[in-house]
Specification:
With 225 residues, the protein is an alpha/beta fold. Helices cover 31% and strands 28% of the residues. It has helices at 53-62, 87-103, 119-131, 168-178, 202-219, and strands at residues 3-7, 10-19, 22-31, 36-41, 65-70, 112-117, 135-141, 159-164, 185-190. The termini are far apart.
Protein backbone atom coordinates (compact mmCIF):
# COMPACT_ATOMS: atom_id res chain seq x y z
CA UNK A 1 0.00 0.00 0.00
CA UNK A 2 1.31 3.41 -0.95
CA UNK A 3 0.86 6.34 1.40
CA UNK A 4 1.03 9.67 -0.42
CA UNK A 5 1.70 13.02 1.18
CA UNK A 6 2.59 16.27 -0.51
CA UNK A 7 4.64 19.11 0.90
CA UNK A 8 5.25 22.02 -1.45
CA UNK A 9 7.09 20.55 -4.48
CA UNK A 10 8.21 17.31 -2.79
CA UNK A 11 6.28 14.04 -2.85
CA UNK A 12 6.91 11.52 -0.07
CA UNK A 13 5.43 8.06 0.07
CA UNK A 14 5.91 4.72 1.75
CA UNK A 15 6.74 1.88 -0.60
CA UNK A 16 6.85 -1.89 -0.29
CA UNK A 17 9.27 -3.64 -2.61
CA UNK A 18 8.92 -7.38 -3.27
CA UNK A 19 12.25 -9.19 -2.94
CA UNK A 20 12.20 -12.99 -3.13
CA UNK A 21 9.69 -14.13 -0.51
CA UNK A 22 9.59 -10.91 1.53
CA UNK A 23 8.62 -7.26 1.20
CA UNK A 24 11.04 -4.48 2.10
CA UNK A 25 9.56 -1.23 3.40
CA UNK A 26 11.04 2.09 2.42
CA UNK A 27 10.38 5.80 2.14
CA UNK A 28 10.59 7.41 -1.29
CA UNK A 29 10.97 11.18 -1.61
CA UNK A 30 10.79 12.78 -5.06
CA UNK A 31 11.19 16.53 -5.63
CA UNK A 32 9.27 17.92 -8.59
CA UNK A 33 12.50 18.86 -10.39
CA UNK A 34 14.27 15.53 -9.74
CA UNK A 35 17.01 14.53 -12.19
CA UNK A 36 18.71 11.73 -10.19
CA UNK A 37 18.05 9.27 -7.37
CA UNK A 38 20.00 8.05 -4.34
CA UNK A 39 19.28 4.76 -2.56
CA UNK A 40 19.96 5.40 1.12
CA UNK A 41 20.63 2.18 3.05
CA UNK A 42 19.69 2.20 6.72
CA UNK A 43 18.72 -0.46 9.22
CA UNK A 44 15.28 0.23 10.66
CA UNK A 45 15.30 1.62 14.18
CA UNK A 46 19.02 2.31 13.96
CA UNK A 47 19.20 6.06 13.41
CA UNK A 48 22.38 6.17 15.50
CA UNK A 49 24.22 4.25 12.79
CA UNK A 50 22.98 6.63 10.10
CA UNK A 51 24.19 10.05 11.22
CA UNK A 52 22.27 12.91 9.67
CA UNK A 53 19.66 10.66 8.07
CA UNK A 54 16.87 12.95 9.25
CA UNK A 55 18.20 15.86 7.22
CA UNK A 56 19.69 14.12 4.21
CA UNK A 57 16.37 13.87 2.35
CA UNK A 58 15.83 17.61 2.51
CA UNK A 59 19.34 18.42 1.36
CA UNK A 60 19.13 15.97 -1.55
CA UNK A 61 15.73 17.36 -2.57
CA UNK A 62 17.20 20.87 -2.68
CA UNK A 63 19.66 19.56 -5.30
CA UNK A 64 16.97 17.90 -7.39
CA UNK A 65 17.83 14.40 -6.19
CA UNK A 66 15.14 11.88 -5.28
CA UNK A 67 15.92 9.48 -2.43
CA UNK A 68 14.78 6.05 -1.34
CA UNK A 69 15.55 5.19 2.29
CA UNK A 70 15.31 1.46 2.77
CA UNK A 71 16.29 -1.37 5.08
CA UNK A 72 17.49 -4.43 3.15
CA UNK A 73 16.33 -6.67 6.01
CA UNK A 74 12.87 -7.26 7.43
CA UNK A 75 12.18 -6.49 11.11
CA UNK A 76 12.31 -10.22 11.86
CA UNK A 77 15.65 -10.63 10.07
CA UNK A 78 17.07 -7.64 11.93
CA UNK A 79 16.66 -9.54 15.18
CA UNK A 80 19.54 -11.82 14.19
CA UNK A 81 23.08 -10.48 14.29
CA UNK A 82 24.28 -12.82 11.53
CA UNK A 83 21.72 -11.43 9.08
CA UNK A 84 23.43 -8.05 9.16
CA UNK A 85 26.63 -9.63 7.88
CA UNK A 86 25.04 -11.79 5.18
CA UNK A 87 26.60 -9.62 2.50
CA UNK A 88 25.57 -11.84 -0.38
CA UNK A 89 21.92 -11.53 0.69
CA UNK A 90 22.21 -7.76 1.17
CA UNK A 91 23.92 -7.31 -2.19
CA UNK A 92 21.34 -9.39 -4.06
CA UNK A 93 18.48 -7.48 -2.45
CA UNK A 94 20.08 -4.14 -3.23
CA UNK A 95 20.34 -5.12 -6.88
CA UNK A 96 16.62 -6.00 -6.90
CA UNK A 97 15.78 -2.68 -5.20
CA UNK A 98 17.91 -0.84 -7.76
CA UNK A 99 16.04 -2.51 -10.64
CA UNK A 100 12.74 -1.59 -8.97
CA UNK A 101 13.79 2.07 -8.73
CA UNK A 102 14.90 2.06 -12.36
CA UNK A 103 11.52 0.65 -13.40
CA UNK A 104 9.53 3.55 -11.95
CA UNK A 105 8.28 5.86 -14.73
CA UNK A 106 9.17 9.01 -12.76
CA UNK A 107 12.73 7.80 -12.10
CA UNK A 108 13.44 5.82 -15.25
CA UNK A 109 16.85 6.53 -16.82
CA UNK A 110 17.91 8.72 -13.87
CA UNK A 111 21.52 8.29 -12.70
CA UNK A 112 21.57 6.22 -9.51
CA UNK A 113 23.73 6.70 -6.42
CA UNK A 114 24.24 4.61 -3.28
CA UNK A 115 24.58 5.97 0.27
CA UNK A 116 25.78 3.17 2.56
CA UNK A 117 26.34 3.24 6.31
CA UNK A 118 28.03 0.60 8.47
CA UNK A 119 27.84 -2.91 6.92
CA UNK A 120 25.37 -1.61 4.33
CA UNK A 121 28.30 0.25 2.75
CA UNK A 122 29.87 -3.11 1.92
CA UNK A 123 26.72 -4.29 0.15
CA UNK A 124 26.63 -1.00 -1.77
CA UNK A 125 30.15 -1.54 -3.07
CA UNK A 126 29.41 -5.18 -3.93
CA UNK A 127 26.28 -4.26 -5.88
CA UNK A 128 28.09 -1.41 -7.63
CA UNK A 129 30.87 -3.82 -8.62
CA UNK A 130 28.30 -6.04 -10.36
CA UNK A 131 26.19 -3.23 -11.85
CA UNK A 132 29.23 -1.30 -13.10
CA UNK A 133 28.19 1.81 -15.05
CA UNK A 134 24.57 1.57 -13.86
CA UNK A 135 25.69 3.18 -10.59
CA UNK A 136 26.98 6.73 -10.91
CA UNK A 137 28.21 7.58 -7.38
CA UNK A 138 28.75 5.97 -3.97
CA UNK A 139 29.14 7.44 -0.49
CA UNK A 140 30.31 5.29 2.42
CA UNK A 141 29.74 6.96 5.79
CA UNK A 142 31.03 5.28 8.96
CA UNK A 143 31.04 2.26 6.69
CA UNK A 144 32.67 -1.14 6.51
CA UNK A 145 33.52 -1.43 2.82
CA UNK A 146 36.50 -3.54 3.89
CA UNK A 147 34.03 -6.43 4.04
CA UNK A 148 33.82 -6.14 0.23
CA UNK A 149 37.57 -5.81 -0.15
CA UNK A 150 37.98 -8.44 -2.86
CA UNK A 151 35.45 -6.67 -5.10
CA UNK A 152 36.43 -3.06 -4.65
CA UNK A 153 38.65 -2.99 -7.74
CA UNK A 154 35.58 -3.69 -9.91
CA UNK A 155 33.72 -0.58 -8.77
CA UNK A 156 33.44 2.06 -11.49
CA UNK A 157 31.37 4.71 -9.72
CA UNK A 158 33.18 7.64 -8.06
CA UNK A 159 33.41 6.79 -4.36
CA UNK A 160 33.57 9.03 -1.30
CA UNK A 161 34.71 7.52 2.01
CA UNK A 162 33.64 9.58 5.03
CA UNK A 163 35.02 9.00 8.54
CA UNK A 164 35.38 10.93 11.76
CA UNK A 165 38.87 11.92 12.90
CA UNK A 166 38.22 10.48 16.38
CA UNK A 167 37.37 7.10 14.87
CA UNK A 168 40.97 5.97 14.48
CA UNK A 169 40.12 2.43 13.37
CA UNK A 170 37.64 3.74 10.81
CA UNK A 171 40.18 6.19 9.40
CA UNK A 172 42.83 3.45 9.08
CA UNK A 173 40.36 1.08 7.40
CA UNK A 174 39.32 3.71 4.88
CA UNK A 175 42.89 4.66 4.09
CA UNK A 176 43.69 1.01 3.43
CA UNK A 177 40.59 0.50 1.30
CA UNK A 178 41.36 3.61 -0.69
CA UNK A 179 44.31 1.81 -2.28
CA UNK A 180 42.04 -0.98 -3.57
CA UNK A 181 39.64 1.33 -5.39
CA UNK A 182 40.49 1.98 -9.03
CA UNK A 183 37.58 4.38 -9.63
CA UNK A 184 37.68 8.10 -8.92
CA UNK A 185 37.84 8.30 -5.14
CA UNK A 186 38.23 10.57 -2.15
CA UNK A 187 38.58 10.24 1.62
CA UNK A 188 36.88 12.93 3.71
CA UNK A 189 37.83 13.10 7.40
CA UNK A 190 35.44 15.12 9.56
CA UNK A 191 37.59 16.77 12.21
CA UNK A 192 36.44 16.21 15.79
CA UNK A 193 33.85 13.58 14.88
CA UNK A 194 33.54 10.08 16.34
CA UNK A 195 32.29 6.95 14.57
CA UNK A 196 28.61 7.94 14.86
CA UNK A 197 29.13 11.69 14.25
CA UNK A 198 27.22 12.46 17.45
CA UNK A 199 29.12 15.66 18.25
CA UNK A 200 27.24 18.94 17.63
CA UNK A 201 27.16 19.85 13.95
CA UNK A 202 29.27 16.89 12.82
CA UNK A 203 26.40 14.83 11.39
CA UNK A 204 25.32 17.80 9.28
CA UNK A 205 28.90 18.32 8.10
CA UNK A 206 29.12 14.68 7.02
CA UNK A 207 25.76 14.93 5.25
CA UNK A 208 26.87 17.97 3.25
CA UNK A 209 30.01 16.13 2.11
CA UNK A 210 27.78 13.35 0.79
CA UNK A 211 25.27 15.71 -0.79
CA UNK A 212 28.00 17.66 -2.58
CA UNK A 213 29.44 14.40 -3.92
CA UNK A 214 26.07 13.35 -5.28
CA UNK A 215 25.47 16.80 -6.73
CA UNK A 216 28.76 16.63 -8.59
CA UNK A 217 28.38 13.15 -10.03
CA UNK A 218 24.63 12.76 -10.36
CA UNK A 219 23.22 16.21 -11.04
CA UNK A 220 26.14 17.56 -13.04
CA UNK A 221 26.34 14.21 -14.80
CA UNK A 222 30.10 14.32 -15.20
CA UNK A 223 31.93 11.06 -14.48
CA UNK A 224 35.72 11.03 -14.28
CA UNK A 225 36.60 7.42 -14.91
Amino acid sequence: MLIHTHHETVESREVMIPVSHVYLTGELVIPADAVAVVIFLQRSGNERCSPGSRVVFGELSECGIAALKIDLLTPEENRYYESRFNLHLLKERLMVVTAWVQSLPELKEFPVGYFGVDTEAASAFMAAADLKSEISAIVSQSGRPDLANHRLYKVQAPALLVAGSLDEQGVLLNEELYTHLLCEKKIAIVDGASHFFEEPGKAEEAVMLAVNWFRKYLVDGVLHM
